[in-house]
């Protein structure tokens, strides 16, 4: 009889030691992401009492970034192994998606601001065609002032004001 009787027996061995380590490291990394969330974002994550206490302690240890913080993240990862992670992963992905959506909007606002300053009236007409509620005269004045500030190497006051105006008026529509 051979040492390995059947190929099907190999399926019963379960995941390899390397796979178990990768899974543990992934849970530890997820624990670190949870610890680094803001208080309002943390409220959206469904954590049981024991895990919530561990995360809160991790938030207190976090600024130190020493061995105790690393060991505590391992502890959080160990706690997470015995929990159903589907809801926690879903809540984390929603928070991450919200961050990327907000960043994309702000980036589009910055692009509009740069186009307005560099292209002038053609970009302004295009912007006004998309967003009818904007104050054309105010934008023209901000564009003119921002260009003068650049020419004279002055602080970019109008540049920032234009961004704030656009953000207040059209951020939700982008």
UniProtKB/TrEMBL annotation:
CDD domains: YjgA-like (cd16331). SUPFAM superfamilies: PSPTO4464-like (SSF158710). GO terms for biological process: assembly of large subunit precursor of preribosome. It holds the Pfam family DarP. Keywords: Cytoplasm, Ribosome biogenesis, RNA-binding, rRNA-binding. One of its GO terms (cellular component) is cytosol. Residues 1-12 have a biased composition (Acidic residues). Residues 1-25 are annotated as: Disordered. Coiled coil: none annotated. GO terms for molecular function: ribosome binding; rRNA binding. Gene3D superfamilies: PSPTO4464-like domains (1.10.60.30). It comes from the Bacteria. InterPro entries: DarP (IPR006839), DarP_sf (IPR023153). Its main location: cytoplasm. It is found in: Cytoplasm. Belongs to the DarP family. PANTHER family: UPF0307 PROTEIN YJGA. HAMAP family: DarP. Member of a network of 50S ribosomal subunit biogenesis factors which assembles along the 30S-50S interface, preventing incorrect 23S rRNA structures from forming. Promotes peptidyl transferase center (PTC) maturation. This is Dual-action ribosomal maturation protein DarP. It comes from Aeromonas lusitana. The gene is darP.
